[in-house]
Automatic annotation (TrEMBL):
<dbReference type="InterPro" id="IPR036291">
    <property type="entry name" value="NAD(P)-bd_dom_sf"/>
</dbReference>
<protein>
    <recommendedName>
        <fullName>NAD-dependent epimerase/dehydratase domain-containing protein</fullName>
    </recommendedName>
</protein>
<dbReference type="GO" id="GO:0005737">
    <property type="term" value="C:cytoplasm"/>
</dbReference>
<dbReference type="GO" id="GO:0004029">
    <property type="term" value="F:aldehyde dehydrogenase (NAD+) activity"/>
</dbReference>
<dbReference type="InterPro" id="IPR001509">
    <property type="entry name" value="Epimerase_deHydtase"/>
</dbReference>
<dbReference type="Pfam" id="PF01370">
    <property type="entry name" value="Epimerase"/>
</dbReference>
<dbReference type="InterPro" id="IPR051783">
    <property type="entry name" value="NAD(P)-dependent_oxidoreduct"/>
</dbReference>
<feature type="domain" description="NAD-dependent epimerase/dehydratase">
    <location>
        <begin position="11"/>
        <end position="217"/>
    </location>
</feature>
């Protein structure tokens, strides 16, 4: 059966997660539409680009027309999340209810709030204290309430901080790899001797694609496949091995502007800085055992990430 005759999978959001997910779904043989406010460019073979504002009811309905599965990977500028993300949820959830499509939501760890180093599993209590954490928890409750009430079929996949090819706006992204390759100053946040989980963006995509085709997982939160946590200092040492020289590191013990993170972003990030002053350890055992999907080893993730940034920088200099 050709992809064109396959049930349609619609990915909302053309950032690193949505773009990587669209490619993963195509590799699995699905018909795929990738949606953003302006039709995404360079989507790759087999991906249909589509322009829509999914924060509006009409835009969301147009975006998901004909979908069997919807993947909500939309994000917005950090300082607008509390205002805009609930509006997007309202439109996307209503569209899922109206069409009957299953809804797979990419989620964060924010609802857990500070854990004092407790390993995070799907059973960890939601104790968010930040504005963005409480907002995310409220959204998640609404998703799960809609599923329990039979209005929609919903599943949530939570990820740790992204890392990997194509990831720029992460604490292990554009503030680290370009400077590591070019000899500049890289960023470390908080206590770099604490373990901190990162999820390979390709594992985010593989995990969401799996949830999209395994409806027995519906109605709950899952932790997407995430490699065992190591300290940020250990990750920096692994990067040093790959770039062939010592890193020049700047460690911020409190949020302030650095590299790609401007004052507006860091001002908003201040309430989330606890993530770097206590261990952030994600356990994805439940997902791995249930679906038979293992996370990419951290060594392989860093290999691929360094090579992607090396090619990116070479292209920018050509």
């Amino acid at each position: 059966m050709s992809a064109a005759s396959e049930p349609l999978h619609v990915v909302l959001g053309a950032g690193p997660a949505g773009t990587t997910l669209a490619g993963e779904l195509v590799r699995r043989g699905h018909a795929v539409r990738l949606v953003s406010r302006s039709a995404p460019e360079n989507t790759g073979e087999g991906v249909q680009p589509f322009a829509a504002d999914v924060s509006t009811a009409d835009g969301a309905l147009a975006a998901v027309a004909g979908a069997a599965v919807i993947y909500h990977c939309v994000n917005v500028p950090y300082h607008r999340q509390v205002e805009v993300m609930p509006r997007i949820q309202c439109a996307v959830l209503a569209a899922a209810e109206a069409t009957g499509a299953r809804l797979v939501v990419l989620d964060t760890l924010y609802p857990y709030g500070p854990t004092r180093g407790e390993v995070m599993t799907e059973d960890t209590p939601w104790r968010a204290t930040s504005r963005k954490g409480r907002m995310r928890a409220q959204l998640d409750e609404r998703y799960l309430d809609a599923h329990r009430a039979g209005r929609a079929r919903v599943v949530l996949g939570r990820s740790a901080d992204f890392v990997g090819p194509g990831v720029l706006n992460s604490t292990l992204g554009g503030a680290v790899f370009p400077a590591a390759l070019g000899g500049g100053e890289i960023l470390g946040l908080g206590d770099i001797d604490l373990p901190h989980s990162y999820t390979d963006i390709r594992d985010v995509a593989a995990g969401l694609a799996t949830l999209g085709t395994r409806p027995e997982g519906d109605g709950r939160v899952w932790h997407l496949p995430t490699a065992p946590a190591v300290t940020t200092r250990e990750i920096h040492a692994m990067i040093e091995e790959r770039v062939g020289h010592p890193l020049q590191r700047v460690v911020l013990t409190e949020p302030r502007p650095f590299g790609p993170f401007d004052a507006e972003f860091m001002g908003e990030y201040a309430e989330m800085f606890y993530q770097h002053t206590e261990p952030q350890i994600v356990d994805s055992t439940a997902f791995e055992r249930t679906f038979g999907v293992r996370p990419t080893p951290l060594d392989a993730t860093l290999d691929a990430t360094v090579e992607w940034y090396r090619a990116l920088l070479a292209g920018s200099r050509s």
